[in-house]
Amino acid sequence: MDYDAGFDQRRLDQLASTYLSDSLAVGDVVFFADDDGRLGKATWCLDEGHYESLNDSGFKYHLMELLDSLLFYRAQHEQPNATQGVVKLNKEKLRMEWVTPKEASQLAE
Q1: Which helix (H) or strand (E) holds 74?
Q2: How confident is the prediction for the chain on average, in pLDDT?
Q3: How far is 33 from 42, CA to CA, in rounded Å?
Q4: How many domains is the chain partitioned into structurally?
Q5: Which range of residues forms the domain containing residue 70?
Q6: CA diameter of the chain
Q7: Within the chain, which residues score under 70 in pLDDT?
Q8: The whole model's pTM is what?
Q9: Which of 11, 42, 70, 88 is most deeply buried (CB count within 10 A of its CB)?
Q10: How far apart are CA 25 and CA 53, in angstroms?
Q11: Cβ distance 46 to 28 under 8 Å?
């Protein structure tokens, strides 16, 4: 099976349509894989009130599951920067950026 470059965004769009229709949250979720290539760490960079509402709604849980799957998918297809990235939240929209380890570390600070 070939790598589908639009897979990440389609899955993020599905998640956003389920949870973010009335969201005002703006910020980043920077994430890193562990040594096994699975989701090991995620740093949420947004307002506290938004974090709580996203957590309470179930969005956080499902985003973490999705990120774990996307890390695995990207590594399976030997794509660059397969172990770290950032999800950009802009109200009801989500966008993925796969970044270098250095960029991810800087964004997580």
Answers
A1: helix 59-76
A2: 96
A3: 9
A4: 1
A5: 7-108
A6: 42
A7: none
A8: 0.94
A9: 70
A10: 9
A11: yes
Structure tokens at 74: 């990207």
Q: Is residue 43 included in any domain, yes or no?
A: yes
Domain assignment of residue 1, yes or no: no
Could you tell me which of 64, 50, 40 has the C-alpha nearest to residue 92?
50
Residue 40 CB-density burial (10 A; 0-12 exposed, 13-18 middle, 19+ buried)? middle
Is 2 a domain residue?
no
Enter the DSSP assignment of 39: E
Task: List the helix and strand counts (H, then E) for the chain.
Answer: 4, 4
Which two three-digit tokens encode residue 23? Answer: 């969201």
Q: What CATH number is given to the structural domain containing 26?
A: 3.30.500
Would residue 38 count as lying in a domain? yes
Instruction: Output the pLDDT for position 49.
Output: 83
Residue type, 86: V
Indicate the SS3 state at residue 103: helix
- The tally of CA atoms less than 13 A away on the side-chain side of residue 29 is 23
